[in-house]
Design brief:
The complex is a heterodimer of chains A (316) and B (270). Chain A is mainly alpha-helical. Chain A contains 14 helices and two strands. Chain A has two domains: 58 residues, no CATH class; 235 residues, MetI-like (MetI-like fold, Orthogonal Bundle), CATH 1.10.3720. With 270 residues, chain B is an all-alpha fold. Classes of the chains: A mainly alpha (316), B mainly alpha (270).
């Protein structure tokens, strides 16, 4: 078998390329191409139809005035212009930034504290990690509903407890000033375990010899953490920041369920505005333009971070 | 670490875990509290627990259907992504075809396209094809995931090439090598992709919200969100729905924990 196989391979190869240029290499390449098409088709067709094509369609729609019912009219960059001049666009970007500004420090500080605490070996540490991670697998819709109930202004548990200790009871998601903080609180609860897992992996990669060496040199626990652990944790931190910003700019599910963007638009975020423009105001052109603006913002922010990482990310 | 300090640390971590898990307990407790006593103030020990909320839930939505939908949509998405992801990964890892680098770069580029850019055009495309409000519409955007391709390719690149060479000498073609040599050796990566596909389908909200109108085609997150509009003040019903949605995914998580955490750590997908 082993002796005949190469012989068979060479005959089929030369047969495939027979007439014009009898080069076995080209025949092999063409056959490889056939195999590649066969293996790539199942993924390439759906990616083309449901990712790349709609990306192009979206760009085209963003240049039209279109309510999805009558015929579209070409309006050039008008949608972009009117969006940039619209106060609601500024408001929704501002709310999205507020979300990120509240959420990121909260999950990072909490996740770091948990990761440091759970980076020890003691009985039950695995169960604790499992417990902290459980909210991560819960859907945003459920997280939003559960927190809407916990933060219910009149009958919710949180206000009940606040009342018991004599603290003021905010109106949470029913109060324009507290709507976004409510969303932030629920989101941080869900994602704390995620950040913990990333940072824990980073901590486990910190070589013990370095920490020991610092100790020999007289560094106290805080100094070892600040000058050895934190710099070596910077790649994991970088990952958390990049991912949190990408996901943060696209925040929607929990806002939609908890506040619906309200009260009175107080927590309307960019994706919420895209949704409303399409399905409430029948302005698919503006919706597409806004989704492109958001995409460009995310892209720019990500590029700036990747460029800027040299200044603060240490690679061991 | 000194013993006292480590005991304090463990105590703090256990307490913290209790606080983190408490909302789950509270959700369950609320779901079995008679709706009349919800306004009386919170209590953990329900005097007369009832399944009334679950009954109301079943009466107001085709709940069994919705749970079954969520399951099979997630299962089909998972199988599709395993198939489309592993075949593409094999091509990138094992077949030397012209333009491989460029094609792979295009695949990776699709990772950067956020769903919110796609909702309007995808909605238009599916409306044109009269496929809105169908199971196909639910599945369409997640038939293939470039992330799965990427993760599986990395795993396949680790499989020693000597193995395929030996198989080639034995007369095996690419189909055979894919199915009997490479696939069995990347099982952990397949498990990670499977778990991520299942979870993101199970939890997905924005896309079903855009394409699904009929209650009998809904998945759990969408069903729950619709319920919210109808029962704003019936927290026992809302929490019963949440319990129904949490339990299956929590079981998947506890059974496949290793792969779940690996998947999340790799992707940052949520």
């Amino acid at each position: 078998m082993t002796t005949t196989a190469p012989a068979m391979a060479s005959t089929t190869a030369s047969a495939a390329t027979a007439p014009p240029t009898p080069s076995p290499r080209r025949g092999g390449r063409r056959r490889q191409l056939g195999w590649a098409v066969l293996f790539l088709a199942p993924s390439a067709v759906p990616l083309l139809l449901f990712s790349l094509l709609p990306m192009g369609v979206s760009l085209w729609v963003s240049l039209q005035q279109w309510n999805l019912i009558s015929d579209p009219t070409f309006v050039g960059l008008d949608n972009y212009r009117s969006l940039l001049a619209d106060e609601r666009t500024r408001a929704s970007f501002w709310h999205t930034l507020t979300y990120i500004g509240g959420y990121l420090p909260l999950v990072y500080a909490g996740g770091l504290a948990l990761a440091v605490g759970l980076n020890h070996t003691f009985r039950g540490v695995g169960a604790l990690r499992t417990a902290y991670f459980l909210p991560v697998v819960t859907s945003w819709v459920v997280v939003a509903l559960v927190w809407q109930w916990l933060l219910n202004p009149s009958t919710g548990l949180v206000n009940h407890l606040l009342g018991l200790v004599g603290l003021p009871q905010p109106g949470w998601w029913t109060d324009p000033a507290w709507a976004m903080p409510s969303v932030i609180l629920a989101s941080a609860w869900k994602d704390l375990g995620f950040v913990m897992v990333i940072l824990l992996a980073g901590l486990q990669a910190v070589p013990q010899e370095l920490l020991d060496a610092a100790k020999v040199d007289g560094a106290n626990a805080w100094q070892r953490f600040r000058h050895v652990t934190l710099p070596l944790l910077s790649p994991a931190t970088f990952f958390v920041v990049v991912i949190s910003l990408i996901n943060g700019f696209q925040v929607f599910d929990q806002v939609d369920v908890m506040t619906g963007g309200g009260p009175a638009g107080a927590s309307q975020v960019v994706v919420g505005q895209v949704y409303d423009l399409t399905f409430r105001y029948g302005s698919a052109g503006e919706a597409s333009a806004l989704s492109w603006l958001l995409f460009l913002v995310i892209l720019a922010v990500t590029i700036v971070q990747v460029r800027g990482q040299r200044r603060w990310v240490t690679h061991a | 670490m000194p013993r006292l300090r480590s005991a304090a640390l463990v105590a703090a971590l256990v307490l913290g875990a209790g606080v983190m898990l408490f909302p789950f307990l509270w959700t369950f407790v609320t779901s079995i509290t008679p709706s009349g006593s919800l306004a009386d103030g919170p209590t953990l020990l329900v005097e007369d627990p009832t399944l009334e909320a679950y009954r109301t839930l079943g009466d107001s939505l085709p709940m069994t259907r919705i749970v079954v939908n969520s399951f099979w949509i997630a299962a089909v998405t998972t199988l599709l992504q395993l198939f489309t992801g592993s075949t593409a990964a094999y091509a990138f890892s094992r077949i030397a075809f012209p333009g491989r680098g460029v094609v792979f770069a295009i695949y990776l580029a699709t990772l950067m396209i956020p769903l919110q850019v796609l909702i309007v055009p995808l909605f238009i495309q599916l409306t044109r094809l009269q496929l809105n409000d169908t199971y196909f519409a639910l599945l369409a955007p997640s038939i293939a995931s470039a992330f799965g391709v990427f993760l599986l390719r990395q795993a396949m690149d680790q499989v020693p090439r000597e193995l395929d060479e030996a198989a080639t000498l034995d007369g095996a073609n690419h189909l055979r090598i894919y199915a009997s040599v490479v696939l069995p050796l990347v099982r952990p990566a397949l498990a990670t992709v499977a778990v991520l596909a299942f979870m993101s389908s199970w939890n997905s909200y924005l896309w079903p919200l855009v394409v699904i109108r009929s209650p009998e085609l809904m998945t759990l997150p969408l069903g729950l969100a619709t319920l919210q509009g109808r029962y704003t003040t019936q927290w026992d019903v809302m929490m019963a729905g949440s319990v129904v949605s949490i339990v299956p995914i929590a079981v998947v998580y506890l059974l496949a924990q290793r792969y779940v955490i690996a998947g999340f750590a790799h992707s940052g997908l949520k």
